[in-house]
């Protein structure tokens, strides 16, 4: 086959050591393990505690893990894409710093932001660079230090999010493996329902914005939940239909880990058994850009060459979508 497809050829991940359990949250806010577990599926999440360490810390660790596992020479990487909603700082690209730190000295780099769909959109971007024949090695990292933008007195949000990162390498494939199809969507109606009001160009940081707590995430959970359920299920079902895939043909659903009930609703619509649904929300909560590659890393042993994977995500904005990918390797390469 002469056509170039974009395959994932290596995976890496990193989560911080500190575990914030539901039991500890019970001592911080008015909540309980039973409520959190039944409403979200989350039992614990990881928090980056190192002083002065930002999202780049997580991203570098995940990329280094990939480099060690795969044995690739970082000097061969052409592009480092950092999917994140929590860059180290508003100006000075975090991805550039990460690329330099991991020794990707011949790469160019930039950040990509689409809230919880950042990584999924990044897969599309990475694949396009590979399919066009322009680049041979694109490192896509998804990393977020969500704890840096969460108010730990707000029980509506602080139970949900955690810190973490994952990385994948995209390379050309000539056997038809890798990305097969994508459906990416967005709708600005979502802006009011999941946002941080201050610190941007509309409302720059000031004494008042700090005093009014406007630098942390606000979420209208019920509304976001409604849109997320229909959005993720719609695109996942559509991508199956468009590619003539039955539930038997799909080996794995790799869905954004925001709420177990949203993942279940998507799997139901696709007609998938629960043993085909990758889940780690109980361990990490919602790590935003980290969730999809963390799933790949946790389940890498189970993925077989030729397996049909459906990725799905939903995030602030709103942003959402689905990607159909054929897995390209068995773990022992
Ligand atoms: N512990 C205990 N009770 C809580 C609570 C908590 N942490 N948070 C909210 N509650 C209470 C509410 O005050 C409310 O009480 P009331 O009925 O007396 O008013 C009740 O529980 C129900 O709250 P509600 O917000 O309606 O719960 P929910 O079932 O919608 O679950 C979320 C809340 C946030 C878990 C859920 O809406 C959700 O997952 N939303 C989508 C998140 C998402 O997908 N984001 C995607 C972008 S990444």
UniProtKB/TrEMBL annotation:
The keyword NADP does not apply. Its EC number is 2.3.1.180. The keyword Secreted does not apply. Residues 110-188 form the Beta-ketoacyl-[acyl-carrier-protein] synthase III N-terminal domain. Residues 257-261 are annotated as: ACP-binding. The active site is at residues 116, 256, 286. HAMAP family: FabH. This is Beta-ketoacyl-[acyl-carrier-protein] synthase III. The lineage of its organism: Bacteria, Pseudomonadati, Bacteroidota, Flavobacteriia, Flavobacteriales.
